[in-house]
Amino acid sequence: MLRLAIVFLVAITAWAAPGRAAPARPDLFSVTGIKIEASAESAISARDVAMAQGRAAAWTKLFHRLTAAANWRKQPALDEKALERLIRGFEVANERRSTTRYLADVSFHFNPNAVRNLLRQSNIAYTETRSPPVLVIPLIGGAGFDAMSPWTAAWKDNELQQGLVPFVTPAPDDPDADLLERPDLTQVDWNALAAMARRYNAGAVILASASEDAKTVQMIELSPAGRAAASFAYAQSSFPADAQAVAERAEDAWKSRNAVDFTVRSQLVADVQFDSLDDWARIRSGLAAVRSISDVDVMGLTLHEAEISLTYSGRSEQLRDALAQQKLELLDMNGLLTLHQAAVSAAK
């Protein structure tokens, strides 16, 4: 065990106020593009009814964003007052009204801490950990990738970027054009696409092959862990609806793996390795940004190493995924846990 170095006590006491802030993260607690519409005896009454319906729709959308489909039936039923307390602000666009009717597009901004407290009090597992990007290669009717196709355009919808899994498509001038035009692209494995995935910082690739009428879609997900396939068929559909269905399937797999049960707590002790006090401050900032970590105790500190005790909720693999989002790597070396910045590890 490391001995506490008194000369660095100032670094330890600065835990709560690290010198460098963590990078800004996407706002998962804002729900945009909620279309509201209602009629009543007056425009004001119609607006109030429409806004109440919009708040409920936004809450459902946020709940689905943070939780796996298996938990959707557990969504807390909130009355109007409870919903208003969850929302810290809203923005209205495309407002239209008559003497008895009101229509608008509304973005609702939820209070993150209020939502977290509600989910934890309700014993509902959820996650805020974002997946690495997923590279989607849209294909139509067995043909190769076409950057200008309506199927590719459907994946540009901004709504698909609001969740926990960010989706990207190949650039029109991708250097692997020959690979993307292969007629047997749906038969390749991860090794054939790994170099392309790395260029897009993607941790997985989805080959999404749709029929020309958009009524059927085959989804093949490739990653270092292997290959998984699923199929969708609809009597009536569209490319945007197909993209949403594929995206929801990918997101649910991620959430099922990463949804944290906050009733389960564990503790671990790890050695933290760093090159400078600036690196130590960045590591502290990253740890503070992981929501599943409830307590960090510095047990010892020297010039390039510290010993810490972490109390966290959920499973150990979920903790590793959450740390990876903060560019921190937790390694188990024959029972000895070490933590360091992932970029530093790669450089070495």
Structure in words:
Helices cover 33% and strands 29% of the residues. With 348 residues, the chain is of the alpha+beta class. The protein has three domains: 6-24 and 261-347, 2-Layer Sandwich (Alpha-Beta Plaits), CATH 3.30.70; 30-110; 134-258, Rossmann fold, CATH 3.40.50. The strands form three sheets. It has a five-stranded mixed β-sheet, with helices on both faces. A five-stranded mixed β-sheet has the order 10-11-9-13-12. The radius of gyration is 24 Å and the shape is flat.
Mean pLDDT: 88
| H-E string | HEHHEEHEHEHHEEEHEHEEHEEH
Low-pLDDT residue spans: 1-25, 344-348
Structural class: alpha+beta
Just give the CATH class of the largest domain: Alpha Beta
How far apart the termini lie comes to 25 Å
Could you tell me the strand content as a percent range? Answer: 25-35%
Q: Spatial order of the strands in the main sheet?
A: 5-4-6-7-8
Shape: flat
The total number of structural domains is 3
Number of helices in the DSSP assignment: 11
Instruction: Report the major sheet.
Output: 5 strands, mixed
CATH topology descriptor of the largest domain: Rossmann fold
Q: Estimate the helix proportion, in percent.
A: 25-40%
Write the SSE topology.
Layout: H1 9-13, E1 30-39, H2 43-66, H3 80-86, E2 87-97, E3 101-110, H4 112-121, E4 134-140, H5 150-154, E5 167-168, H6 177-180, H7 190-199, E6 204-210, E7 216-223, E8 226-233, H8 239-258, E9 265-273, H9 277-289, E10 293-301, E11 305-313, H10 316-325, E12 328-333, E13 336-341, H11 342-347
Parallel strand pairs: 4-5, 4-6, 9-13
Antiparallel strand pairs: 1-3, 2-3, 6-7, 7-8, 9-11, 10-11, 12-13
